[in-house]
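INFO batch 0412 | record 1 of 1 | parsing
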Amino acid sequence: MNKDETRQNYLEAIYFISLKNHDVRAIDIAEYLNFSRPTVSIALKQLASEDYITITNNKIKLTEKGHVEAYRMYERHNMIAKIFMELGVDEKTAYHDSCMIEHDLSDVTFEAIKKAYHKYLELRKDS
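INFO prediction complete | emitting tokens
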């Protein structure tokens, strides 16, 4: 896993956890990603130094920069998984596989996929 992919996984995890709970703590991230607390602590310090997150009173929040990147990955992950499930892939495999490719798609390719998927949904709705 490269540095960008690691950062994206952490940001997406923070975003996802924040949707479920208002407060995100390091322990929540460690449990979600199945990483040790020391590993998460190191990563969080790096994310904070790069202005992706703020940490106040042990609560982690995405900065605007972090939110943009986190939502970008969250959207990719979910849309790709939904497409795979439409193709007949079971949910667990679809989400696993979408996580494997979401980081490597160019923005151009993802936008084309997104456009085609929305067109497909419209056609399906009209049927």
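INFO post-check: Strands lie at 53-56, 59-62.
INFO record closed
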